[in-house]
């Protein structure tokens, strides 16, 4: 009898514990009576719109140049109806001010790394170098079991010597003014980032742009799928010099006086809202990775973790053309009509209106070079400067016959994107005639080339199962 009483007592204790614990503590499916019922309370996912972007709804359109081809160029392909998924797109080209955030991040990361290396394992408070030691040196009490395991591996089992948690301490502000350097050791570290005195012109102390390298990895998924394998073999490691080539203002125009733009276009505050130029295709892709990492790191820093954001990237050529049309069928230009001026005689984009006349009339809205973003009307999707101002890089490789053999569903030559030297460039620029501004006109440039008339904007995928707030068409 006593034995039976003990068994009953143990069973009742187990039942009471399972009631107070999680669903996994009891039988699988105990809360849903064994039925396949999702316990998620969220009925749908409302995707977060990134700042400065607009949502482009999914849809179909006829891609290609539907108008008369005055040049009879081979780039004109047969018209083809295709379908494009929804995505976010920057409402303007990436500006100098936005790209400078990228430059400053890389600059600060390098400086902090040099200071942390100089500090070594020092955790002594009150010293200038010790304050910049790796954050992992001063966070012993906050390490969890996984962090301790990773750091215990050292250089074995695929982990590097610093481990996954050897991170920089961004809480300590950097001092860039020489008058505010805390001591000589700090000055020695930061001085290594500037041009050596032997290379300075007029003894001007400026950062050595050759040292501004951005390192990141990306996976060649297409090759991995083709080979039916997934390994580090398909991991591509990039180290990109990300400073724009400011000499393009001289190189692109050998017989023109563009020295003022060479000196100040990228850094002068007067040009902060102008589109960045002198950026190669690889640099544009590095910027996309930086923007993705910036948002992902922020979400990870929150106490209540958010959904991992979709990566930022360059648009495919087909996505770009679809967005440029603004939801209008067979539109010659992003604003729809076949004319380059409105009913008051004002130009609708920044381009070269006449031969040798880059600025026909200031009242008509023309500019000698690039224009600040948002100076012309946006198209039906809410995008500015999809024609003129600067041409824009796309993710897609360039091929004369692309439109003939690509898929009709989200067309792209993704498996050739990084192998092909020629990349599709769309939209026309401030130096081009009206023909290159047509939504169906194609052009290309080598991916390692930087030009004074090529910039870029980024896109972000919208998951098919989510909802987004789309702007109403303005046209």
TrEMBL record:
Signal peptide boundaries: 1-23
Record flagged with keyword Calcium: no
Residues annotated as domain Sulfatase-modifying factor enzyme-like: 52-459
Keyword Lipoprotein (UniProt): yes
Keywords from the named record: Lipoprotein, Signal
Domain of life: Bacteria
Gene3D superfamilies associated with the record: paralog of FGE (formylglycine-generating enzyme) (3.90.1580.10)
InterPro entries, per the entry: CTDL_fold (IPR016187), Glid_motil-assoc_lipo_GldK (IPR019866), Sulfatase_Mod_Factor_Kinase (IPR051043), SUMF_dom (IPR005532), SUMF_sf (IPR042095)
UniProt-recorded name of the protein: Gliding motility lipoprotein GldK
Organism: Kaistella montana
Organism lineage string: Bacteria, Pseudomonadati, Bacteroidota, Flavobacteriia, Flavobacteriales
